[in-house]
Amino acid sequence: MLGGPETMMKLRVDHTSDGPRRIPGLWLVFVLAAIQGLASPPPTDAADGLRLAPGLSFTDDSSDAFPIRGNHLEDAALRPGWATVMFFGASHCWNTNREAERLVALYPKYRDRVTFVIVDVAHPSPPQRPLLDTYYRGSIPTVVVLGRDGTTVYARAGETATRRGDTEVLDALITRAGHESP
């Protein structure tokens, strides 16, 4: 903030025809709060803090945990003007685990400008059910990438790469979605 209330009361507007005039301190506080609110990221309505579940297998179907952990995993809100990545997967699937590894690796790069929606198809939350009906076709993993304008940039089942840890294709898809016009 610019200073305490006494500092704000001393600020003047010098471009009035009547000369300098005091700006009410409370009014200035509201203006500064509004400006700060515009610069802040929107409240979270989607998954954040994404990380891999411990003990995942990337070579067989022995992992009984859903591969992605994080906050707000039950959320499904799509933010207007933001690109969106939807991940549909389940436990006991090494292909899901490998694709989850790619997504979690890219999460830090895009977390402030892309909405992430993570859906465990065996246990979807009520807000996620419409997304299942619209985008999921029954195979895991499924990745759906929407542009900032809501158009589908990518929607396919299976892995986005053939080698573990290869994020090149997924990274390019997310980058492209972020550049789509709102």
Radius of gyration: 22 Å
CATH architecture of the largest domain: 3-Layer(aba) Sandwich
What is the assigned CATH homologous superfamily of the largest domain? Glutaredoxin
Major pleated sheet: 4 strands, mixed
Helix content: 25-40%
Largest sheet: spatial strand order? 6-5-7-8
Shape type: globular
The share of residues in extended strands comes to 15-25%
Question: What is this structure, in a nutshell?
Answer:
This protein is α+β, with helices and mostly antiparallel strands. The chain has helices spanning about 5-10, 25-40, 95-110, 130-135, 170-180, and strands at about 10-15, 20, 50, 70, 85-90, 115-120, 140-145, 150-155.
Question: How are the SSEs ordered, and which strands pair?
Answer:
Layout: H1 5-10, E1 12-13, E2 21-22, H2 25-39, E3 48-52, E4 68-71, E5 83-89, H3 94-110, E6 114-120, H4 129-135, E7 142-146, E8 152-157, H5 168-179
Parallel strand pairs: 5-6
Antiparallel strand pairs: 1-2, 3-4, 5-7, 7-8
